Amino acid sequence: RGLGDVYKRQAALQPGQIMLLENLRFDIREEKNGEDFAKALADMAEIFVSDAFGTVHRAHASTAGVAAFLPAYSGLLVNKELSIMGKALDDPKRPFVAVLGGAKVSDKINVINNLLEKADTIIIGGGMAYTFKKAQGYEIGTSLLEADRIDYAKEMIEKAAAKGVNFLLPSDNLCAAEFSAEAEPVMIEGNIPADLMGMDIGPKTVETFSAAVKGAGTIVWNGPMGVFEFDKFAGGTKAMAKALAESGAVTIVGGGDSAAAVEKLGFADKITHISTGGGASLEFLEGKELPGVACLLDK
Fold first, then answer.
1. Arithmetic mean of pLDDT, 227-248
2. What does pLDDT average to over the chain?
3. Residue scoring higher pLDDT (126 or 298)
4. What is the pTM of this model?
5. Nearest Cα to Cα of residue 262 among 286, 234, 282, 281
6. Is there a contact between 276 and 57 (Cβ–Cβ < 8 Å)?
7. Which H or E run contains 201?
8. Which pLDDT tens digit goes with each residue over 184-212?
9. Which of 42, 44, 48, 254 has its CA 20 to 30 A from that of 170?
10. What pLDDT shows up at residue 23?
11. Does a cis peptide bond (omega within 30 degrees of 0) precede residue 95?
């Protein structure tokens, strides 16, 4: 529907009533943060309350642009996200442990850079770990590899050592001959054969990672340890979720796959905070200014 329909509905509103606008991306001016569209939205109200944390990393008309025309404040959810994650990064109870996983190193470049300045221990799992293992000189078979990030991986390992940050990588992996839920797991320690790919962290790595988490004061987790969608390769992610749940630390899980894994594996009620925004929480961990937050008066 166009804004004409919205204006007709607005005319019938009474003071104290609330209008809910959905699917604003029907208008190309939303993602372009068009000033005229932002003003049209602002003309419908007297105050703007932002409470969709999952979109505050986007400079769209309805997330940032409208704040140029209305007093803009954070809602209860956005306030909770910013206060909990902000304290974890700026004044964490120590030891501060960051657990990072997921498929790509490139998705976490700025996160690792930022956390190397703040964390006592950084744990790397998931598909991104194999680029780091390759940087250490290990063979990784057909595992995920970002060849253009090998030098970066070496740099991060060296930077961690220089700063005294405990930088943990998998020592063993559950591997398979193909990317399939039906594939048979093969436990490999050290070099991965040319015909196998890493699918999950192995039992020795689970033990090492769990020990690093035990006794932590603050733990931030973003990204699964393996292909948790496949039951045969969900063990590492489940073990990490269990370790967080039993740690006694302030535990924060980023949105996206990490949140989905914790929910699926049954540990959600034992985590201090599960972020509602995957991209937003990731950019927050990178130390980026979020445009949908920067525009608020009570950020």
1. 95
2. 91
3. 126
4. 0.87
5. 234
6. no
7. strand 197-201
8. 999 999 999 999 999 999 999 999 999 99
9. 254
10. 78
11. yes
Q: Closest Cα partner for 152 from 165, 138, 134, 170?
A: 134
What confidence score (pLDDT) does residue 32 get? 94
- Cβ atoms of residues 108 and 223 within 8 Å: yes
Residue 247, CB half-sphere, CA atoms under 13 Å: how many? 32
Residues whose CB falls within 8 Å of the CB of residue 10, separated by 6 or more in sequence, listed in order: 19, 44
Q: Is 290 within 8 Å of 62 (Cβ atoms)?
A: no
Could you give the C-alpha distances from 150 to 156, 169, 183, 197, 295, in angstroms and in order? 10, 14, 28, 18, 37
Q: Are 251 and 131 in contact (CB under 8 A)?
A: no
Return all residues near 166 (Cβ < 8 A) that are at least 6 apart. 120, 121, 122, 160, 212
C-alpha 4/C-alpha 20 separation (Å) is 15
Helix (H) / strand (E) element for 152: namely helix 150-163
- The pLDDT, as a whole number, for residue 1 is 42
Angle subtended by helix axes 235-245 and 203-213, to nearest 10 = 20
Residue with tokens 């045969």, as numbered in its chain? 232
Contact criterion met (CB below 8 Å) for 253 and 276: no
Indicate if the pLDDT at residue 275 is higher than 70. Answer: yes
Among 184, 213, 215, CA closest to 199 = 184
pLDDT digits (tens, 9 = 90+) for 154-192: 999 999 999 999 999 999 999 999 999 999 999 999 999
> Residue 14 burial by CB count (10 A; 0-12/13-18/19+): exposed, middle or buried?
exposed
